[in-house]
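Dear colleagues,

As part of the handover before I leave the project, I'm documenting each prediction I ran so the next person doesn't have to rerun anything. This entry is a single chain, and its sequence is reproduced below.
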Amino acid sequence: MGFLDHSTNNIIVDAVLTTKGRELLADNDNSFSVSFFALGDDEVDYNVIKQFGRTVGKEKIEKNTPVMEALTTSNLALKYPLISISNEFLTHAPVMTVKNTSTLTFDRKSNTTTGTLDLEVENQTGLGIEPELLDSEFVIEVPHLFLGVTGYTPESVSTDNIATYRVPSSQSSTGSKVKFSVPLQAKSLSTTTFDNHTVSGQDYVSCFVNIRGVNTGQRTTSNILMY
């Protein structure tokens, strides 16, 4: 769903079904049922608030933000969902970071085909994480042709060959951090397939892994290199 052209006082809503929704509707067996919906602010640039202040900045965002039409691809339709927090005095949200000191790499020649991507969610103020912002599990998206998550079966594989996994997190005893590791397994590739996907002028394949919190929707991306 998307809002179109807010240059007037009228609000126009463009709502479409995602590809998955259309598939369920086409089954015609009552499996299609809208049980909830989510809102997001993917297009909003909050730097406008910092530059012009809350009152003028809000007006500029409402009148000038170019909002795209609704998308039918479900994994692109809502990247930054809005969430409700009961603590009205909350001023800082936690940040997800990759803790690996260097880029994780897989080397086929030395048979290095497994590795762990270490991540951490922490409030930068050091005050701890609001309980409502603790994610018990994370959604991991990897290029299915090159990578898999060890010990887990993908929930789905999209038409563009992106595999989606769910991985549980482990909360530290202090409650101020959430730590979790993603055990990755490199797939066996033929020389031809590897050569066809290497970065232009380089001898490696660049694989992007997307991590998203199920509850909060916060996300980060890590680049994995395969030699």
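The helical segments are 19-27, 47-52, 54-64, 74-77, 191-197. Residues 2-77 form one domain.

All the best with the project,
I.
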